[in-house]
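New here. Your pick:
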Amino acid sequence: MLKAVILIGGPQKGTRFRPLSLDTPKPLFPVAGLPMIQHHIEACVKVENLKEIIILGYYPVSELAQFINDMTQEYKINIRYLQEYTALGTAGGIYHFRDQIRCGNPEVFIVLNGDVCADFPLTDMVEAHKARESSALITVMATEATRQQSLIYGCIVEDKMTNSITHYVEKPSTFVSPLINCGAYVCSIAIFQIIAAAFTKKQEQYYSEGHENGNGVAGKEAIQLEQDILMPLAGTGRAFVYTTTRWWSQLKTAGSAIYANRHYLQLYRKQGHTERLLQGDQPNVIGDVYVHPTASVHPTAVLGPNVSIGPNVVVGPGARIRESILLEGVHIEDHSVILQSIVGKSCTVGAWARVEGTPCDPNPNKPFAKMDNVPLFNADGRLNPSISILGCNVSVPAEVILLNSIVLPYKELTRSFKNEIIL
């Protein structure tokens, strides 16, 4: 028997995802028509003998209750949300709820960070981990990055003969290895002994130093899987790496949601979920497009490639939408253009208006997206070109152009903007 754990953090995290996370918990933000962590659940339920999925975070239970109920009904598997009382870190929550994870004596358990998206090779990872029998405590999913990109991730040095991790550094200041941690793990139950030792060490440090560090409860109980567990395990022959060439990306910024949307739509086609896509033989549909059944799209509107349209969206005659996500209740009026943008809930874009952004990564065929080391502002204080984002309930009047800009919720624009944050 196997279990899976999905780590979703809480509302204090994910600030780079604003304003989209102001009205929707980030883990429930829809990418390719499904809440972000539903893609994780779909990957998990394909693993043989997986009996339970536990979601850990410190969002209020009320914000996820309906989602958990819907997922349990849809996938016919036991799914639970366990709320941390404070931010406990990527390993602290696992340790805090260790009894619930160990209940039923699972052979191994899968751990997935909620802010990564990928074509997860979970079955292959589990088989590779179990093949090492008692020697493996943890197997880490990894992929290759460029030298420059690797500096913003956890870097792994691998023994090519045994695939064991010989060295691990989180966000190094100089180049260590092109192999980076993807935030997906397979763990043996014995890993809890290592986490317990790290927890005890934290407690001893906290009480020996007193309260001078000002970290409060987090200072003595927050445990990071990367720094506190993987780094000490490196070189012991108990931590291993599983390298994948499949698509993978972090989902920390709104711009990366556009990238993830593109790849999840492609994954639908690859995995045979063609019922989720508009069929490409329609003259006004280009490439992969998802349209919610309740949305209304005029037959003269041109959609695609890589477009997701949410519930109760109305798209008027002659509109053009490409490489974009339209959330619930959006109204796009006649002959408007939406390119490389995310339009928040209940927004209105007037006739002949144009909302356009710039792709965050000019090469969409890279194995993953280089998103997180691009500064938000340039030297003169202007917003760097990126995708355009409309928060919820924004009104864009007719014949207005919005280029590479972010608009906070409940704004009514009166003119055109370029490279600005509209507060």
Q: What stands out?
A: The chain is about 25% helix and 25% strand. The first strand starts at residue 2 and ends at 9. The domain at 280-422 is CATH 2.160.10.10 (UDP N-Acetylglucosamine Acyltransferase; domain 1). The chain has two domains: 2-250, 280-422.
